[in-house]
User: Fold this.
Amino acid sequence: MLYLDNSATTPILPEVKEAMLPFLLEEFGNPSSKYYDLATNAKKAVDIARANIAKLLGCDSDEVIFTSGATESNNMIIKGVADYYKNERGNHIVTSKVEHPAVLETCKFLEAKGYKVSYLDVDHYGRVNICDVEKIIKNDPPVLISIMWGNNEIGSMNYIEDIAQLCYEYDIFFHTDATQVVGKYPINLEDHPGIRFLSCSGHKIHGPKGIGVAIIKKDKNGLPTKLTPLLHGGGQESGYRSGTLAVHNIVGIGKAAEVAFENLDQNIKKLMELENKLINILTTKFKDIIKFNNDFKDKIPGILNVQFKGINNEVLVRRVSEIMAISTGSACSSSKPSHVLEAIGLSLKEIRESIRISLSPLINESDLEVFNNL
Assistant:
């Protein structure tokens, strides 16, 4: 079976598995303990992983906070900022209508607690308008703006650098969920000081599940940015996130980040080649039967959202499940019609006819010939 649902999760790399195994078996120490080898070995491994992630994202190692995944990172950042600064900066939060459920549901939770949340409209490819962001900042300055870097269903990339610069100029906290972009686009946070917070997950870059990262950048004076912790306890992760560190998973995401950094350019090139090959096959075989919902520029390489006219997407996904794995949209909201496709103006019928294909550098162009057998 050809796996084409890499936006949902990715297969773990062999070198990631090998790096993790010692810390599941022999090296079981707690990095918060002291003096003996099992503890110091664990701490060294965590430090190396933190450095690898910092290198991939262009930030300082002490700005890398380990979590259980991007969902926790999103919750931790949005709730933590909202709570800590509500008396100082107000209770207004800004996001967009096409965010991942981990952001949208967090914002709805805060809305029910009395916070004001503004949900920005997007264009027909799912991007927010920078003018809308500036207008809302001037009219009602928010405590936090949270806009995803790249969309998990249609691949559209927001102009995050411009939004970050705007937030920097107006001194607004800015968070971006970069889960789908990390490893598929060069990121250097040192070049974009307006990005104060970033979220990502290990299992989207061929690392293990159950581990993610919250990047919490220091302020202009080099001091740690404060927020209310989501988890209270022993004060691990500089007090941001208590709990015994999952060393094996941290080693795994660290190794995945190292590999992603080393192979970034060639992986982007491979994804573009695969995407172009697949577009050619689909348009040649299916012609007017299909329509692409995604843009073909300023997007995450390797994500295509395709409408098969007159064919229910769930029926299609089941029909081809023995030869390929594709999806109807986000794995985190698979039981509902896509809120992303709705927000870009598609009808319910069009949404019910749309599938997502997400590629990986691990597959070969020849593998895509399977579409000619449909």
The first helix runs from residue 14 to 24. The first strand starts at residue 2 and ends at 3.
